Amino acid sequence: MKVSVSTQTAVNRDDGWSRYLGPGEVLLWSGQPDHGRRFREFSGIEKTWQLVMLVGTILMWLTWPMIDEKQSPSATDAIWVYGAVTIVFALVAFYMATTRAYILSHLHYAVTNERAIVLRTGRNHLLAMRDYLISCWHAKDFPYGIVEGRPYSSLTVGFLLSEDVVQPFGYGLTHSGWSPLRVRGVIPVLFEQVKDANALRTLLFEASDSALARRP
């Protein structure tokens, strides 16, 4: 499968996808992630990380009554250490949630008669807002694998060798809901957290067959 990345100055998207499509290209479907764009909508394994930090914080504080004030470090010293660790965990949890919400709210998806498109809006290294367009051209026998998730599944539409080509200043396509194993080597290009993943997969197969039939 051919995957290309293009970038341009970000613009108001009130006119839809028309400015991104080529001659003769027809929009078949468009959407955004159906879950994860809000702060409290945990995605993927993010809830697991949050629960681990919460349980760890609780267990840590349960040991505080066992510390003798006369020993070193004392119970008073422990309060400062435990408090600092608790604040760090809270900041990490906040960062994970805000990063995931920011990334997913700036992703837009489309399927045309020629390709699957992921549009990522974000700032580059000069802090200018840019549109990053990842085009995954329909190809023979590409499986369009479904990645099971909670509450909705994601659909694989292509692969990139590096997320940096998508967003040089920021987080690319990945966020805290992704498994660390998923970002090793190639980066999957996903339609994340979509309600109708199976129906969308069928549409992509049909569009691929039609595109291949038109090509010489």
Automatic annotation (TrEMBL):
Keywords linked to the UniProt accession: Membrane, Transmembrane, Transmembrane helix
Record keyword Membrane present: yes
TM spans (from-to): 48-67, 79-97
Protein name from the UniProt record: DUF304 domain-containing protein
